[in-house]
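BUG: 3D viewer hangs when loading the predicted structure for this chain

Environment: internal workstation, default settings.
Expected: structure renders.
Actual: progress bar stalls at 90%.

Input used:
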Amino acid sequence: MADTAVDSDEECRISEGEYVVLKRGDVYKSVQIEKRKKVIFEKQWIFMDNAVGELYGSTFEVDGGGKLTLRKPNRTEDATDNKEAGLDNRHIVDDGKSQKLTRDDIESLKEQGLKGQEIIQQLIDNSTTFKDKTEFAQEKYIKKKKKKYESNITVLKPSSRILAMMYHGREPGKICHLRYDTLAQMLTMGNIHAGSKIIVFETCAGLVLGSVMERMGGHGSVIQMYPGGGPVRAGMESFGFPSHFHDTLHEFPLCKVNALLSGTLNVDEKDTDSQSNDGADKQSGSSQVSSGGGEEGSAEPQSMEVSTDPAEAKKREEREKLREQKAQEKKVRLEEKRRRLAAAATLLEGRNADGLVIASRFSPCPVLLGLLKFVAPSRPFVVYCQYREPLIECYTKLREQGGAISLRLTDSWLRHYQVLPNRTHPVLLMSGGGGYLLSGITVTADAAASETQQKSSEPAAKRIKLDEIRSTGDSSV
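Structure tokens produced before the viewer hung:
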């Protein structure tokens, strides 16, 4: 029990080399903890050295040199305690003359070393209208000044919710405008759990992939289908998963799916890029040989003269060793890539995946129809798209060809509420849309076709009636 308590305490503390999320107000940023390294956050230089060893969720104050100081909770710091407040704000005129301190005075206070709370107190004391404002207006004024003058940063442990909020607030285009509530629905509809085999195709900077791996907890298999030359995993790396999580992750290029389905996939064949590079090397080598043969008389004395110089010979040997080392490293990388490709192909050949998750900026219809063949029957799948029309096309295709039931096309609606004493109301500014989701359950194609045929066939009594009507019509003609 004691060892377990120590391990859990160590997991809750910040350590060097880990990824953390910095929070200031409603702004988030993911960084890696490294000593003596400057981090830019909200136009301010920060050194994260003092954060090592502290608990996640700790709040730090940033001094003038960018160093972090652990902020201790202080209940007496609220400037509104024991302050006078007015009944309403009808007599307050915003003419810009209520504040006695000028910008130069505030800058001089900063140079004197006053902290944010002390500067805010000076602003309150030199305001002629603060006492006449209502209690709500005073709290709003203090909150606004804290956001401007206080340099408090909270260090959080990365999670799917925090990273989704970070990407959606800073760079929503990188994640196809995927909102965190829509991401939660995707994980629920896809039935992501530990021990399952999930196929993921996404172009959301690795955010969806990392969320799936977090929900699985390092147990099971995740097969990432990627377009282009290689997978993108920037968002997944921000989670800071331990090493055994990466053992469950596999990758497979989307361009080789048809070859795998037809049974013509050759794992040992060289890539197109490596073939082109080898061809270029051979061509350059042959050009060098041909040029050497053309100037044989002039090249021979030069080579004899160079060979007699020991420094040149040593440099030539170093270049040869470096070239051989690079070739060996390239060979090792290609062998590792073939090994990973073979492992992913082995997992896909069984066609018994437990789920499919798609969130891409590409047209989802051909990708969905191709990857559904690797999913076992009676398994869920979910497709995200920022727009509705591509998912309507997927819905229509699946209804036509069968292989899926319980198809649902939904959109999510989210609104924040301010919950405070005597002033609970919905926030006026809200997100315009969180995208659309298409979900369903796979079935065998034969069963789906027979079910569709039974539904479309008419009852026996109705067919008899129709035959009688057609026969009477023919006789009358």
